[in-house]
Amino acid sequence: MKTRGFYVAATGQNVGKTTSCLGLVSGLKKRFGSVGYIKPVGQEHTETEAGSRVDKDVVLFQSHFNLLDDLETMSPVLFPRGFTRDYLDGKVDHRELTERIRSAFEKVAASRRLTVVEGTGHTGVGSIVDLNNAQVASLLRCPVVLVASGGLGSSFDELALNYAQCEKYGVRVAGVILNRVLDDKRAMILEYMEKALKRWDVPLLGCIPYDAFLSTPTMGDFEQLFETPLLTGSERALCHFHHIRLVASPVEMYRTLIVPNQLLITPASREEIILATLTRYWDEKIANPGKELGLGMILTGKHPPKETIVDQIRRAGIPMIYVPLSSFIAMKMINTYTTKIRKNDLPKIEEAVRIVEEHVDFDRLIAAIEVQERR
């Protein structure tokens, strides 16, 4: 049977599977014209204008690549809260789920040379409801491409666990993509990971370098993280910051530390810091009318900022959010937060596409899938 798609799974959470899929879909579209995308099992969902719930990544891919399939087809099964308990209680028909997935894939793949099937997490995710990634790949008769973190020893260990899961369900691993590979280790990893993968006869399809920009949060991310809306500057919710500074120093010292594209974290009670920031903003605006300083604020503490302060920040158009936590707790939450690519964040989408396209060997990928077709 001719392979009409391949399945992309990760070796763990937040490895860069969706980033990889963005570049893979883009690169394959340039080679084949019409390429499909489907995420058969989703967890993080959003509600469409029609009122149905679909996986967030499906909305991103349909929007960016102008895909013609409807969202419900591209996201046939979701695991909402309580789904696992309902399944174990016998309230969910497994055959209905598998048929829904199979039917959706057939519909998406019908008119495409290739369809990229994005999994959810590592190959074992979904095992408790008998729909893990390896099982779904087997159901759809798709070879698997594994995305792993860009190391050597620990990365291969994780690959081995996921490879074994694929073997269990008779799914062939067509290739491996390493993501977030550090430049100073790139040559070594390329050489030795190739050697390690030879025992499975699995090719290394790409080494994607670490890109700090793809991990840079926006004010929209902070809205989601702190579960509270922006008080000002909502039109700049997708602003990226190169520097995040927690300010606990005297205002005299802080004035020397204000730089472009900086996010300020400080208590709302420290009005002298906020006013110093506003003064610098307007000074730059007057000196360079067409240049944006690109500042943002997260104000913290038990008491929100005064309305007069909020009005001044609003007039400057600076995006600001108030969080009723200490600055140190807010900073800790930010440091442990993993950003996701949003459908409207075009600079980040374009960067993901660029970096993946440049560092994945598409000829080798296509050849690996064709090998699967002949087996």
Report the biggest beta sheet as strand number plus sense, adding barrel if it closes.
6 strands, parallel
Q: So, the CATH homologous superfamily of the largest domain? A: P-loop containing nucleotide triphosphate hydrolases
Distance between the termini: 9 Å
Q: Count every beta strand, where a strand is a DSSP E run of 2 or more residues.
A: 14
Task: Provide a compact summary of the structure.
This protein is α/β, with parallel strands linked by helices and 375 residues long. It is built from 15 helices and 14 strands. Strands 2-7-1-8-9-10 form a six-stranded parallel β-sheet, with helices on both faces.
Main attributes of the structure:
single chain; 375 residues; alpha/beta; Rossmann fold; Udp-n-acetylmuramoylalanyl-d-glutamate--2,6- Diaminopimelate Ligase, Chain: A, domain 1; 2 domains; 6-stranded parallel beta sheet; 4-stranded parallel beta sheet
3D architecture notes:
It is built from 15 helices and 14 strands. The protein is an alpha/beta fold and 375 residues long. The chain folds into 2 domains: 5-212 and 341-374, Rossmann fold (3-Layer(aba) Sandwich), CATH 3.40.50.300; 219-335, Udp-n-acetylmuramoylalanyl-d-glutamate--2,6- Diaminopimelate Ligase, Chain: A, domain 1 (3-Layer(aba) Sandwich), CATH 3.40.1390.20. The strands form 4 sheets. A 6-stranded parallel β-sheet has the order 2-7-1-8-9-10, sandwiched between helices. α10 links the parallel β11 (243-246) and β12 (262-267).
